[in-house]
TrEMBL record:
InterPro entries: aa-tRNA-synth_II/BPL/LPL, Ala-tRNA-lgiase_IIc, Ala-tRNA-ligase_IIc_anticod-bd, Ala-tRNA-synth_IIc_core, Ala-tRNA-synth_IIc_N, Ala-tRNA_ligase, Ala_tRNA_ligase_euk/bac, Thr/Ala-tRNA-synth_IIc_edit
GO biological process: alanyl-tRNA aminoacylation
Coiled-coil regions listed: 745-779
Cofactor section: Zn(2+)
Protein name: Alanine--tRNA ligase
GO cellular component terms, semicolon-separated: cytosol
Encoding gene (name): alaS
Keywords annotated in UniProt: Aminoacyl-tRNA synthetase, ATP-binding, Coiled coil, Cytoplasm, Ligase, Metal-binding, Nucleotide-binding, Protein biosynthesis, RNA-binding, tRNA-binding, Zinc
Protein family: Belongs to the class-II aminoacyl-tRNA synthetase family.
Entry binding sites for Zn(2+): H544, H548, C646, H650
SUPFAM superfamilies, per the entry: Class II aaRS and biotin synthetases (SSF55681), Putative anticodon-binding domain of alanyl-tRNA synthetase (AlaRS) (SSF101353), ThrRS/AlaRS common domain (SSF55186), Translation proteins (SSF50447)
Catalysis: reaction(s): tRNA(Ala) + L-alanine + ATP = L-alanyl-tRNA(Ala) + AMP + diphosphate
Main location: cytoplasm
Length: 896
């Protein structure tokens, strides 16, 4: 039986037993307590807990799962994977142990025709009820029944939540496969007894403090590993030899250059690429934290193994294509997102390959340097992580391969230092949001949000936290920060008191939490009126709808693979981060900007559709993740142009957005880019601000230019001042006349650049002019030379002379006299610059320039440097200059 047939047999069987066949959920769980979907029951957690009413009493699913807990075992055992499919049946307060056991036994022995002699069963040691059911109802002999402890036979999806004793069914692969110990039995670590199915009898909710609280209605959660049951039915000794893996491993072999590749490495790569493909399909992008990090780690881990096996360049994306081909029929999502999946994986591969080699050099060098202790210092591991993108664990694995360990303590210290640097640089997490940390607001539940329709309404106060200045109402028009859109500000009015709301936050439990300057007389039960700041909200809404237009325009003009990776939608601007492989060109950006303005100008109606999850998928809405079957979702529809899931608030027509302008585009690293843009009033302010500041700079530069020209004694050429009429500019903005606006901006930029060039040229001319003037004035100074015993000496003081000017004076004098002693000083802003030159005749008489300088500089608190016939330098004090000159004269006299 191939895997497709097994899935179908399973679902058909339970359908016939009254179960509703439901789709599995995304790998990104709605449940915030776990990172990734790790079991079929996860999407039903609220039902088991009794907080959600089920639509059906019985359900059955095929659920894709990722479990990182087994990562180390992948490739080492026949039965562990990170990605696997779980076949499950569920009862929500309907049947319990008796029927669950009967279904499972019938399915295995009658439907799949597995000989009962091959099967053994374990129950929780204290669960006599289950033991008796197996014994009496199904007639299992006692030697096939085992009682195991809590660690083995008590199941929970996490530290808290629904859980209960379980019963596991094992397939015996025979003594030849396992450890051979006489004590070997179900639950042993070896490969002999293969656990194929787990039946959890859910009857408790584990509370935060670990207490087991009996659930009002009990349930059943079972899970059978598809790959494992396939291995049994296909008579192979490992999951990796089933039809689920064989074609993939074959494909990897064709890429490998080594003659005898290590089987375990092939298996790891095959496992990881299945996880990676599904993770990306469900909307995870490689990154540095949480599930993004899991994805990155899997890609980089598999990529490195590929290199070890001799594969050159990116190859995982090609394997992903094979995964899509093999699994795309059952998971159509894969086919639909194919292009994006391949592009994302390839980008991450390329990205890592770029630094991998350099990182390996560093790694190998560190290995050589630490052969003695066999411990790699944390600093090296940190550098591999920070500079070369090696996940910490990957460095650890590579070190272990060579018999080394790594100093984790030191690594953590380096990470801490880096965080501190980031904190000092002002990159800290949102201050307001942190106010909610540590507060348990669950008892206040979900606040009714009315802000889609209303900007103000009457409401009742539910809770006040005066110390934190937080207030919760029973209903509110205030949008709480989520999905990138910032929280509203406004006022809560209690009789005559107007209390200012400075931010609105969303508690994990769904409460809308208003952050106030002060809570005044607010108390639970009080009646208030809550009103948001409407002008600010309008701008935010414009930015939000513009973000959707931008997303779509990027997909049109830059590439279909562009996907949102994060966003900020505020009153000041919008920021949009997106995955993109290559740099975005100026032309593309201009085209995107033009396209968004075009769509605004078209006055397209913006509508919100309330859809079921399946309907939204069918409509092709973007960014479906986190939602699950049965949810109502909001789909934002901008005419026929854009369709996106969104819980935010939006304008009613694109016309309301106003002019749209991109202000910045940059790379965020790792195939992610960022665009910052403004719309509406902020866009007008931005453009006008830009024009004003350029005009001011042009004015300033023009007057500087004019002054220079006057000094040069030349007529003013060039430097024509362009004045953009504010009214004309505003007109262009209002008409979405992007071309004119950009023309104005370009003109101003060009004018300024021209002007600056003119200034630079004039400054050069003036400098040369002054040097020449200085040289010609030097002729006049010959008369000022003093003769001391046949040697000519000049000491002279100037204002604001550059060193070049001093040099040209000195050169002229030395030339005309055929050798003399010249000390020239220029004073500027109480600073002294000096130049001392001597002719060869003076050097011959023992009067080299450094000797003169040694006498001269103490008086001016200065220093200088040079050679025998020239010393240049500066000093701090000009008050004793006359004495300094005299000291030099005295030196000359004394020397002769
Ligand atoms: N939730 C149980 C498991 O994951 C049974 O589905 O094993």
């Amino acid at each position: 039986m191939n895997s497709t047939q097994i899935r179908k047999r399973f679902l058909d069987y339970f359908k016939a037993k009254g179960h509703e066949v439901l789709p599995g959920s995304s790998l990104i769980p709605a449940d915030p307590t776990v990172l990734l979907t790790l079991a079929g029951m996860l999407q039903f957690k609220p039902i088991f807990l009794g907080t959600e009413i089920p639509k059906y009493k019985r359900a059955t699913t095929v659920q894709k799962c990722v479990r990182m807990i087994d990562l180390e075992n992948v490739g080492k055992t026949a039965r562990h994977q990170t990605f696997f499919e779980m076949l499950g049946n569920f009862s929500f307060g309907d049947y319990f142990k008796k029927e669950a056991i009967a279904f499972v036994w019938e399915f295995l022995t009658k439907e799949l025709k597995i000989p009962p002699a091959k099967l053994s069963v374990a129950v929780f040691e204290k669960d006599d009820e289950a033991y008796d059911l197996w014994r009496e109802d199904q007639g299992l002999p006692a030697e096939k029944l085992f009682r195991l402890d809590e660690e083995n036979n008590f199941w929970a999806a996490g530290p808290t939540g629904p859980c209960g004793p379980c019963s596991e069914i094992y397939y015996d692969l025979g003594p030849s496969v396992g450890c051979g110990r006489p004590s070997c039995q179900p639950g042993c670590d070896c490969d002999r007894f293969l656990e194929v199915w787990n039946l959890v009898f859910i009857q408790y909710d584990r509370s935060d403090n670990g207490e087991l609280i009996p659930l009002k209605q009990r349930g059943i959660d079972t899970g059978m590993g598809l790959e494992r049951i396939a291995s049994v039915l296909q008579g192979v000794s490992s999951n990796f030899e089933t039809d689920l893996f064989r074609p993939l491993i074959q494909e990897i072999k064709t890429l490998i250059k080594l003659p005898e590749p290590e089987e375990s490495k092939l298996r790891i790569i095959a496992d990881h690429i299945r996880a990676v493909t599904h993770l990306v399909a469900d909307g995870v992008l490689p990154g540095n934290a949480g599930r993004e990090y899991v994805l990155r780690r899997l890609i980089r881990r598999a990529l490195r193994l590929g290199l070890v096996l001799g594969i050159k360049g990116p190859f995982l994306w090609r394997l992903a294509e094979k995964v899509i081909l093999e699994m795309g029929d059952f998971y159509p999502n894969l086919k639909k997102k194919k292009e994006q999946i391949l592009a994302t994986i390839k980008a991450e591969e390329t990205n890592f390959l770029q630094t991998l080699e350099l990182g390996m050099q560093l790694f190998n060098q560190a290995i050589l340097e630490h052969t003695g202790k066999k411990v790699l210092p944390g600093e090296v591991v940190f550098k591999l992580h920070d500079t070369y993108g090696f996940p910490f664990e990957l460095a650890g694995e590579m070190a272990a391969e060579q018999g080394y360990s790594i100093n984790e303590q030191e690594f953590k210290k380096e990470m801490e230092k880096q965080r501190e640097r980031a904190r000092l640089a002002g990159i800290s997490s949102d201050k307001n949001k942190s106010k909610l940390v540590g507060l348990d607001l669950t008892r206040f539940g979900r606040t009714k949000f009315d802000g889609y329709e209303k900007t103000s309404e009457a409401a009742g106060v539910v809770a006040v936290l005066p110390k934190e200045n937080l207030v919760i109402l029973d209903q509110s028009p205030f949008y709480a920060e989520s999905g990138g859109q910032v929280g509203d500000t406004g006022t809560i009015m209690l009789d005559q008191q107007h209390l200012k709301v400075i931010d609105t936050l969303l508690a994990p439990s769904g409460s809308i939490v208003h952050l106030l300057e002060q809570t005044g007389d607010l108390a639970p039960g009080a009646k208030v009126v809550a009103a948001i700041e409407t002008e600010r909200r309008k701008i935010i809404q414009g930015h939000h709808t513009a973000t959707h237009l931008l997303h779509k325009a990027l997909q049109e003009k830059v590439g279909a693979q562009v996907r949102q990776a994060g966003s900020y939608v505020g009153p000041d601007k919008l920021r949009f981060d997106f995955s993109c492989l290559a740099a975005v060109s100026q032309e593309q950006l201009a085209a995107v900007e033009a396209r968004v303005n075009e769509k605004i100008k078209e006055k397209i109606k913006v509508e919100v559709l309330e859809k079921s999850y399946q309907e939204a998928v069918a409509l092709g809405a973007m960014a479906l993740f986190g939602e699950k079957y049965g949810d109502k979702v909001r789909v934002l529809k901008i005419g026929h142009y854009s369709l996106e899931l969104c819980g935010g608030t939006h304008v009613k027509s694109t016309e309301e957005i106003g002019f749209f302008k991109i202000i910045h585009e940059s790379a965020l690293g790792s195939g992610t880019r960022r665009i910052e843009a403004v719309a509406g009033q902020p866009a007008i302010d931005y453009v006008m601000g830009l024009v004003n500041s350029w005009q001011a700079e042009i004015l300033k530069t023009t007057s500087h230019y004019q002054a220079l020209m006057t000094e040069l004694g030349q007529a003013q050429k060039g430097g024509k001042l362009i004045v953009v009429e504010p009214a004309a500019l505003l007109q262009a903005i209002k008409k979405y006349d992007l071309k004119s606006v950009n023309q104005y901006l370009d003109q101003l930029a060009a004018t300024l650049a021209n002007l600056k060039e003119g200034v630079a040229k004039a400054e050069r001319e003036l400098k040369n002019l002054k040097i020449n003037q200085a040289a010609s004035s030097a002729a006049g100074f010959v008369r000022e030379l003093v003769e001391i015993n046949g040697l000519k000496v000049l000491t002279k003081e100037f204002q604001d002379y550059s060193m070049q000017m001093l040099r040209s004076v000195s050169d002229t004098l030395q030339n005309q006299t055929g050798g003399c002693l010249v000390i020239l000083v220029s004073l500027a802003n109480s600073k002294v610059s000096f130049l001392i030159t001597v002719g060869d005749n003076l050097i011959a008489k023992g009067l080299a320039a450094p000797k003169v300088a040694a006498v001269f500089t103490p008086f001016i608190k200065g220093r200088g440097g040079g050679k025998a016939n020239k010393v240049e330098g500066g000093g701090q004090d000009s008050s004793r200059l006359a004495e300094a000159f005299q000291a030099v004269i005295d030196l000359v006299k004394a020397n002769l």
